[in-house]
Amino acid sequence: MRRPNSHRFVGLTGVRLAFSGDQATKPLVNANSTALASGAPVFPGFNLVFLRDDGVTFALLGGVPWWGLSAVALGIFAWCRVAFNWALPQSVWCSYPETGKFRRDSREFEEALVTRERCFGSTR
Question: Are 40 and 66 in a shared domain?
Fold first, then answer.
């Protein structure tokens, strides 16, 4: 019998292993940064090269502290979350004003989505 959360367990295990491997190799690479600056051959045509770049993409926001980048990321996440919460229920409320505002996990919301599918032939 399959566990109901097996996909989540496998995903979280993979994340933990990747994070642990990353954190374990950082001290090793930093200790050998001068040797890796010129490149260490792994196999023909592929060299492992150590390069330090504080920028995000193409050296944009170079030198910004980690907390500044975290604040930008959290701001973008919050904006996306608010936009998503506004967009989905708003489309249902505009099409079905008699239903009023209700929680997305309520039965009325599911009924409104089913009604929308029947009327417009659309799916979620």
Answer: no
6 vs 13: CA distance, rounded Å: 10
Q: Residue 117 has which token pair?
A: 């599918």
Report how far Cα 103 is from the mean position of its chain's Cα atoms: 25
List the beta bridge partners of residue 40: 48
Cα→Cα distances 93→22, 69, 89, 109, Å:
46, 36, 6, 10
Q: Is the same domain home to 44 and 62?
A: no
pLDDT single digits (tens) 30-46: 888 888 888 888 888 89
Same domain for 48 and 30: yes
What is the rounded distance in angstroms from the CA atom of residue 76 to the CA atom of residue 123?
A: 27
